[in-house]
Amino acid sequence: MIICNTPDVPGKEIVEILGLVKGNTIRAKHIGKDILAGLRQIVGGELKEYTQMLDEAREAALQLMMQEARQLGADAIVNIRFSTSAVMQGAAEIMVYGTAVKLKNK
User: Fold this and answer.
1) Which domain holds residue 53?
2) Which end of the chain is more exposed for a tag (fewer CB within 10 A), N or C?
């Protein structure tokens, strides 16, 4: 499946818009990694535990969005956007959304 953050797919013609598709997940790290990240925050540096958590969350959200698009029979998802929000300390929601489309067969 083609996924892009542009309104069209270069070299392809969109023949049908199937609608909005989305995927979201809420992730948190366990208390041990939360404590390590808190200590690292005091001395500075990358909070690798949270970087990993957000990477995993983005991938999970993408997979959920693509699953929804496949159920609609989409060939591609255009105009994708990511949104992040803190749900509580140490937990974040990642949402990805876009427009599922059918492409012209050549």
Assistant:
1) 2-103
2) C
Domain count, the chain: 1
Average pLDDT for residues 14-34, to the nearest whole number?
A: 83
CA–CA separation, 81 and 79 (whole Å): 7
DSSP the chain: -EE-SSSS-TT--EEEEEEEEEEEEEEE--HHHHHHHHHHHHH-S--HHHHHHHHHHHHHHHHHHHHHHHHTT-SEEEEEEEEEEEEETTEEEEEEEEEEEEE---
Task: Supply the CATH number for residue 10's domain.
Answer: 3.30.110.70
> Comparing 6-15, 25-34, 57-66, 78-87, which segment has the lowest mean pLDDT?
25-34
- Residue 76, strand partner residues: 2, 101
Indicate whether 30 pLDDT > 70.
Answer: no
Contact between 47 and 37 under an 8 Å Cβ cutoff? The reply is yes
* pTM metric for this prediction: 0.82
